[in-house]
User: Which sequence fits this backbone?
């Protein structure tokens, strides 16, 4: 999957609160589909649809444990999303620093501006 397409799939998967809750559960350890469906008031097929979206985005994988096929959280797509967000956080932080500097400069010169009006 190309990087932009993978990032699109990650953000699309994260847009749903049920899928985010599933990822939060998987952050504590592997779980079966039945275990993942337990806290939700929805059918197991509905949960399976959410799991397929998460699998396509690469956010979860399916393991093999005898008869059990537990789902496991995959961290790499989340790290790529964090990296993408972090680039924009840094840009906004630099913008706020420039704004702070401008405000300090303007606050330091109120007497000068008043004199011009007088």
Assistant:
């Amino acid at each position: 999957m190309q990087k932009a397409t993978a990032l699109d799939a990650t953000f699309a998967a994260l847009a749903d609160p049920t899928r985010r809750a599933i990822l939060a559960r998987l952050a504590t350890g592997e779980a079966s589909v039945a275990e993942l469906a337990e806290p939700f008031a929805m059918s197991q097929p509905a949960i399976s649809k959410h799991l397929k979206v998460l699998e396509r985005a690469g956010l979860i994988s399916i393991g093999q444990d005898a008869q059990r096929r537990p789902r496991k959280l995959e961290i790499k797509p989340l790290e790529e999303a964090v990296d993408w967000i972090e680039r924009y956080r840094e840009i906004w932080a630099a913008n706020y620093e420039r704004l702070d500097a401008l405000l300090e400069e303007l606050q330091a010169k109120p007497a000068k501006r008043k004199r011009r009006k007088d």
Q: What stands out?
A: The longest strand covers residues 60-62. The chain has a mean pLDDT of 91. The beta strands are 60-62, 71-73.
